[in-house]
Amino acid sequence: MTPMNSSDITALLPLILITATAVVVMIAAAIRRSHAVAAVLTLLGLAITFASLWYVSPLAPRQVGPLLTIDGYSLFYTGLIVAATAAVVVLSYGYFERQTEHREELYILILVAVLGSMVLVASDHFISFFLGLEILSIALYALNAYLRDRALPLEAGIKYLILAAASAAFLLFGMAFIYAELGTMQFTRIASLMLGGSNLDQPVLVAGLALIITGFGFKLALVPFHLWTPDIYEGAPAPVTAFVATVSKGAMFALLLRYFYTISIRRFDSIFLVLAIIAVASMIAGNVLALLQNNVKRILAYSSIAHMGYVLVAFLAGGAMGAQAVTFYLVAYFITTLGAFGVVTVLSPSDRDADRLEDYTGLFWRRPALGSILTLMLLSLAGIPLTAGFFGKFYIVAAGASSAIWGLIIVLVLTSVVGLYYYLRVVVAIFSAPEAAAEELPLLPVPASSGIILGVLGLLLVWLGVYPGYLLGIVTTAVRSITH
To answer: How many whole angstroms separate alpha carbon 189 and alpha carbon 54?
Structure first.
């Protein structure tokens, strides 16, 4: 193994900066408790990390040891993760300012989770994959259960702990099987051996891939590994739920795309069939189960299961167009999910989250701006034209059509129609006449910073729906690193 040089250290600068930010926030909290100082230092570190991506980009692509690949693909997803985390931090400040818990440690945990996510998107080896996953998961245990005086967050933390342990066990067994068969844990080396064709039918190799897919299924909440999702979404604090739904899942899907694109999943008919069945089951179960919910966070939880099924359709389409569709759709999903949970966050009082459907009755007439933003986010999740969600679904359909996976496309279209019903249920509540029950939710002042974030998310949603060309250009350049 060659020693690291200055170029390698420069390539790792975003990870170093995030780690340094976590240490600085920890030291600052030890010296003097201040929620505002912790939040500002976190945002400053995230901003510097985001700016460093332009400094690192001339070095890309660069292999840093056997574990990490710093290329346009990893830098794009790192930027997406950092930007989404900044939005979560801003929303968290107003939310946790109303809580009695110590607040400073929250930002340390968020930064640690971001570090794990950044390692995941740059991983080119099973060891870095597992280390990044565990760094992310350990931070999420505490984040989910951060409000210790409530029963639901504690339940969410315990359930996520069990989930992570189960998924880690499946992943480790899968990695062991693949290593036993191929003698390597590096993605590029695995790909070169498998593309040779001599090992494709080995039962140990197929079993290893199946176990790894099971581990991914748990983390991405794909059917039949989805049962934890509604309870975690409902129990975790609203901004933490936004983080889990976006950054955590986005990092895992970025790694899934890199890993399976490298080994060419279309060469494995059995694995492709299993993933196709999982995609269909996720789209159907996610949308049908969401119809039965009266809790907004649980509606969004089941909706996320369906959306991960949609992204899996683009993933199965393969080719450069499939990779581009996955990446574009994840960006749109980040924006809409952050916006939806952002509204839940700013409306939540100190004793509970604003997650009951009746909490949103007449919201437009009581809070026109928040009602409009939430409506916009729900319409984008439903795939209504002139939103980023519509173009994202259109891109997935186009990618699927290019690969002739017509069955998956038909299921996607039909289940999207079903999804319209439960999104419109919330929209109807937002625009209905205010009722006395809705007045039980106090009209809390919206922090200026949270209002700005929600406004920016709303503008981005419309801009990408009307003019997606700019983002498409960036996405095309980014995925070229894994599709060349």
So the answer is: 29
Q: Contact 54/10 with Cβ under 8 angstroms?
A: no
Pair 101, 146: CB distance under 8 Å:
yes
Contact in structure between 245 and 304 (CB atoms under 8 Å): yes
CA 47 – CA 25 distance, rounded (Å): 14
Q: How far apart are CA 217 and CA 223, in angstroms?
A: 7
Distance of alpha carbon 472 from alpha carbon 484, whole angstroms: 17
Token pair in block for residue 40: 């500002």
Mean pLDDT split into 10-residue runs, the chain, 484 residues:
70 90 91 88 93 82 80 90 93 84 85 92 88 90 83 84 85 88 81 67 79 86 83 87 90 85 70 88 91 88 91 86 89 92 87 82 86 91 87 89 87 90 89 63 77 91 89 87 71
Minimal CA–CA distance to 373: which of 478, 482, 446, 274?
A: 446
192 CB contacts (<8 Å, ≥6 apart)? none
Residue with tokens 């891109």: 395
pLDDT of residue 437: 46
Whole-number pLDDT of residue 61: 77
Rounded-to-integer distance, Cα 163 and Cα 137, Å:
10
| Cis-peptide into 61, omega within 30 deg | yes
The DSSP secondary-structure symbol of 5 reads -
| Residues constituting the chain | 484
CA 448 to chain centre: 26
The torsion angles phi and psi of 4, rounded to 5 degrees, stand at -70, 145
Using an 8 Å Cβ cutoff, are 338 and 87 in contact? yes
Query: Contact 119/127 with Cβ under 8 angstroms?
Result: no
- Per residue, the 3-state secondary structure of 332-384, as one string, reads HHHHHHHHHHHHHHHHCCCCCCCCEHHHHCCHHHHCHHHHHHHHHHHHHHHCC
- Which phi and psi (to 5°) does residue 70 adopt? -100, 105
Q: 64 has which bridge partners?
A: 68
Token couple for 196: 């040779």
Cβ-in-10-Å burial (0-12, 13-18, 19+) of 126 comes to buried
Answer whether 0.85 is exceeded by the pTM.
yes
DSSP 41-74: HHHHHHHHHHHHHHHHGGG-SEEETTTEEESHHH
d(CA 240, CA 345): 10
